Amino acid sequence: MPYVNIKITREGATAEQKATLIRGVTLLLRDILGKNPETTVVTIDEVDTDNWGIGGDSVTVRRARERQG
Questions:
Q1: Which keywords has UniProt assigned to this entry (predicted)?
Q2: Catalytic residue chosen out of the listed positions 1, 2, 3, 54
Q3: Judging by beta carbons within 10 Å of its beta carbon (0-12, 13-18, 19+), is residue 3 exposed, middle or buried?
Q4: Domain extent listing, the chain
Q5: Strand 41-47 to strand 3-9: parallel, antiparallel, or no bridges (unpaired)?
Q6: What is the CATH code for 3-67?
Q7: How far apart are CA 69 and CA 62, in angstroms?
Q8: What is the SS3 assignment for the chain?
Q9: pTM to 2 decimals?
Q10: Each residue of 49-64: pLDDT tens digit?
Q11: pLDDT digits (tens, 9 = 90+) for 17-41
């Protein structure tokens, strides 16, 4: 039983977009690894940008810096 955990920042991914991710990953595992879609588990965790860091800064800080230009 494959288990895939997708982590994204909480920035407004729609229910439709998340459903598309779940469906797409499930089909990818079926097509590439021959896994049974009926036993494939896909979860999506949404993380606040304050709780996601890159290069020593939170995504919130990085995005604010990008907006300042």
A1: Isomerase
A2: 2
A3: exposed
A4: 3-67
A5: parallel
A6: 3.30.429.10
A7: 11
A8: CCEEEEEEECCCCCHHHHHHHHHHHHHHHHHHHCCCHHHCEEEEEEECHHHCEECCEEHHHHHHHHHHC
A9: 0.85
A10: 999 999 999 999 999 9
A11: 999 999 999 999 999 999 999 999 9
